[in-house]
UniProtKB/TrEMBL annotation:
The keyword Oxidoreductase does not apply. Belongs to the ATP-dependent AMP-binding enzyme family. This is AMP-binding protein. InterPro entries: AMP-bd_C, AMP-bd_C_sf, AMP-binding_CS, AMP-dep_synth/lig_dom, ANL_N_sf.
C-alpha cells in the first residue's frame, strides 16, 4: 500500500464540539462584529451571536426540540443561519441543511428521509416549506423574521443554556447535509462533531488567518463548502463574514472592496467572471491577496488569468461532503496551477486502480482514496451505499480520478462517479432519470454532464419514448414541476435505446463518447 501524506505536522484532535470550537474564538473578541447581513447591513457581534445561540438552545430544549431531535434549516446565507446551526448543535440536536431553492417535492424528500422534527425557513420560502410540510404529514414550522400565523425564531428563544448539551463527539450526528456520493440519489451524510472540528483545524492550519479579516460570504451555508470553509472557519479562525443571500457579482465586488477583503472564497464560474468580466475593473480589489476556489475543477488558464488580473495568488482546495469537506489545499507560498494542492494534516491518500483495487505506481492516474478523522461516519439509513463508499479499514473512495506528483501535489483528472457538477452544485443523474421515468411517455432515460465553459458541466438527457412521448419542451416542463432550476437538462436527445452493461448499468461513457463524435 502506498500512502501519501503531507510533510506538515498533524493537528491535535480536540475533545470539543463544533460550537465550543467556534465559541473559543468568539469569547476572546465579544465586541467584534462577526456577521453582517449584506443586503440590510444588520450586524451581530461575537457576544450577540453567542447569546442568541444559547437562548435558542435553551428554547429548543425547553420545548423538546433539542437533544436527539433533527431540525431542518432551509434558508439563504444570513447571520441567523449561524444562530440556528449552532443553537441546534449546542442543544444536542442534528441540523439537516436544505437548499432554499428546492421545490416542495425536493424539500419533502429530505424532510422525510432525515426524519426532521421541525423546519426553520424564511418568509420568502414559507410557501414551499408549507407545501413540503403538508406532503410529509405535517411538521412544526418556524420562520426567521416574521410571517403572519407562523412561529418565529424569536418565539423559540428561551432562557440561555450556558453549557453545551453533552453528546458523543464521535458518534452523534451534528449535521446531515445531502450528497449523492458516487452513485444514486442524494443521501444524508452523517457528520460528527469530531469530523467538523478537525476539518476546521485542518483548514486553519494552512490558511494564515488574520484576526478580523472579512470575507463576502455567498457560498451557500447549506452546502458543506460554505458551511465549513466560510461559516465555521471564519468564526473559529478569527475572521468575520458579510453574508450574501445569493451570488451577485457587483455586490460581491462591492463588499470585498469596502471591507478590504484579503481573500475571496469562490467556485470556478466566479473565477471565470473575475478573470473576464469588464465590471471587475470598476472596483478597488488591491486588498485581495488570495482567491480560493473549490467544488469543481479550476483550469490552469483561468487560474493564472485571475491571479494576474487581481495581482494575487489563486489557490484551489479539493473537498467532498463526505470528507467534512476538505482534504487538499494549495499551499499559499507555492501553489501549482491546475492542482488542488497538498493533503491537509492528518490525511492519508492513496491512488488506486478502480478495477483491481491495487495501488498504482507514483505519478499514475487512479481513484483517490482518503483516510483521516474528517471522513464521514457513513450515510443515513443506507448501509449499502456506506459499504460501497467506505472500506472496512476506513478508506473513503472518492469516485474522482487523480494523480499525485513527485512533490505531493494532487491533480483531479477526471470523475469516475456519476455526479454532475453544475456551477459547483451537485446534480445526481439518478435523480433526474428517476423523475423522467415518472412520465408515462418515457420508457427509459439517461442523464450525463457535458463540459460547459461557464457552468463547468451542463446536464443533458437521452430519452426513449413510447407513443405518448413528450417533445423536448415537454420533457423540460416535466422536470421543472418537481426539480429545482440547477437540476434542469439543457439538451434533450431522443434515442432508440440507452446503452447498458450486462448488469443493467447505464454506460455513461458510451453516451459521452457519442456526444464527442457529434461535436
Ligand atoms: C475538481 O464540492 C464539494 C466540496 C468542495 C470544497 C469544499 C471546501 C472544496 C474546497 C474547500 O475548501 O463537495 P461535494 O460533495 O458537493 O462535491 C464533491 C465533488 C468531488 O468529489 C469532486 O468531484 O466535487 C468535485 N470537486 C472538485 N473537482 C470538489 N473540489 C474539486 C476540485 N477540483 N478542486
Amino acid at each position: 500500500m502506498t500512502i501519501y501524506k503531507t510533510a506538515a505536522p498533524d493537528v491535535a484532535l480536540r475533545d470539543i464540539t463544533i460550537t465550543q470550537r467556534v465559541f473559543e474564538n468568539l469569547t476572546r473578541r465579544p465586541d467584534a462584529v462577526v456577521l453582517t447581513d449584506g443586503p440590510t447591513g444588520a450586524t451581530l457581534t461575537a457576544a450577540d451571536l453567542m447569546d442568541r445561540v444559547k437562548r435558542l438552545a435553551g428554547g429548543l430544549n425547553a420545548r423538546g426540540f433539542g437533544a436527539g431531535k433533527t431540525v431542518a434549516l432551509m434558508a439563504p446565507n444570513m447571520p441567523d443561519y449561524a444562530v440556528v446551526f449552532h443553537g441546534v448543535a449546542w442543544a444536542g440536536g442534528t441540523i439537516t441543511t436544505i437548499n432554499p431553492t428546492y421545490t416542495a417535492a425536493e424539500v419533502a424528500h429530505q424532510l422525510r428521509d432525515s426524519g426532521a422534527d421541525m423546519l426553520i425557513t424564511v418568509p420568502m420560502f414559507l410557501e414551499t416549506a408549507q407545501a413540503a410540510a403538508t406532503e410529509v404529514g405535517g411538521l412544526p414550522l418556524t420562520v426567521i423574521g416574521s410571517a403572519e400565523g407562523t412561529q418565529t425564531l424569536d418565539d423559540l428563544m428561551g432562557a440561555p443554556q450556558e453549557a453545551q448539551t453533552p453528546v458523543d463527539l464521535d458518534t452523534h450526528i451534528v449535521v446531515l447535509p445531502y450528497s449523492s456520493g458516487t452513485t444514486g440519489l442524494p443521501k444524508g451524510v452523517r457528520l460528527s462533531h469530531r469530523n467538523l472540528v478537525v476539518n476546521v483545524d485542518q483548514i486553519i492550519a494552512g490558511a494564515s488567518f488574520e484576526e478580523g479579516e472579512v470575507a463576502a460570504g455567498f457560498l451557500p451555508f447549506f452546502h458543506i463548502y460554505g458551511m465549513q470553509a466560510l461559516m465555521n472557519v471564519h468564526l473559529a479562525g478569527g475572521g468575520a463574514l458579510v453574508t450574501l443571500p445569493r451570488f451577485d457579482l457587483e455586490l460581491f465586488l462591492q463588499i470585498s472592496q469596502d471591507h478590504r477583503a484579503r481573500r475571496m472564497w469562490i467556485v470556478p464560474p466566479v473565477a471565470l467572471a473575475l478573470a473576464k468580466h469588464p465590471v471587475v475593473d470598476q472596483y478597488d480589489l488591491s486588498s485581495v491577496e488570495e482567491i480560493f476556489s473549490g467544488a469543481a475543477p479550476l483550469g490552469g488558464e483561468v487560474c493564472d488569468a485571475v491571479a494576474k488580473r487581481l495581482n494575487c495568488v489563486a489557490l484551489q482546495g479539493y473537498g467532498m461532503t463526505e470528507l467534512s469537506p476538505v482534504t487538499h489545499i494549495s499551499p499559499r507560498h507555492a501553489p501549482k496551477s491546475g492542482s488542488s494542492g497538498l493533503a491537509t494534516p492528518n490525511t492519508d491518500c492513496r491512488i488506486v486502480d478502480p478495477d483491481t483495487g491495487a495501488d498504482l505506481p507514483a505519478g499514475e492516474e487512479g481513484e483517490l482514496w482518503i483516510r483521516g478523522p474528517q471522513v464521514m461516519m457513513g450515510y443515513l439509513n443506507n448501509d449499502k451505499a456506506t459499504a460501497e463508499t467506505l472500506t472496512q479499514d476506513g478508506w473513503l473512495k472518492t469516485g474522482d480520478i487523480a494523480k499525485i506528483d513527485a512533490d505531493g501535489y494532487m491533480f483531479i483528472m477526471d470523475r469516475l462517479k456519476e455526479l454532475i457538477k453544475y456551477k459547483g452544485f451537485q446534480v445526481a443523474p439518478a435523480e433526474l432519470e428517476a423523475t423522467l421515468l415518472t412520465h408515462d411517455g418515457i420508457t427509459d432515460a439517461a442523464v450525463i454532464g457535458l463540459p460547459d465553459d461557464e457552468a463547468g458541466e451542463r446536464p443533458i438527457a437521452f430519452i426513449v419514448g413510447n407513443d405518448r412521448v413528450p417533445d423536448a419542451d415537454g420533457v423540460r416542463a416535466h422536470l421543472k414541476r418537481t426539480l429545482s432550476s440547477y437540476k434542469q437538462v439543457h439538451e434533450v436527445y431522443f434515442v432508440d435505446e440507452i446503452p447498458k452493461s450486462a448488469s443493467g448499468k447505464i454506460l455513461r461513457r458510451v453516451l459521452r463518447d457519442r456526444m464527442k463524435d457529434t461535436a
